[in-house]
Amino acid sequence: MIRLFSGDGPRSTILALILIVIGLALAFAPFLFPGVRALETAARICIFVVLAASYDLLLGYTGIVSFAHTMFFGLGAYGVALASTHMGRGFTALGVGTLAGLAAAVALALVIGLFSLRVRAIFFAMITLAVASAVTVLASQLSAVTGGEDGLVYQIPRALGPAMRLDREIAGVTITGKILNYYVVFAISLVLFLLMLRIVNSPFGRVLQAIRENDFRAEAIGYRVVRYRVTATCLSAGFAALAGSLWAIWLRYVGPGTTLSFEIMLDILLMVVIGGMGTIWGAALGATLMVLAQSYLQNLMALAAGATEALPILSRLLDPDRWLLWLGVLFILSVYFFPTGIVGRLRARAAR
Amino acid sequence: MTAMLLETEDLTVRFGGHVAVDAVSCGFRAGELTAIVGPNGAGKTTYFNLISGQIAASAGRVRLAGRDITLLNVSERCRLGLGRAFQLTNLFPGLSVLENLRLVVQARRGRGFSLLRLAGSDREVTREAEELLARLRLEALAEQPVSELSHGNQRKLEVALLIALDPLVYMFDEPTAGMSLDEAPVVLDLIAGLKARTDRTILLVEHKMDVIRSLADRIIVLHNGALAADGPPEAVMASAVVQEAYMGRELEDV
Ligand SMILES: Nc1ncnc2c1ncn2[C@@H]1O[C@H](COP(=O)(O)OP(=O)(O)OP(=O)(O)O)[C@@H](O)[C@H]1O
Ligand SMILES: [Mg+2]
Question: Which SMART domains does the annotation name (chain B) (predicted)?
Answer without folding.
Answer: AAA
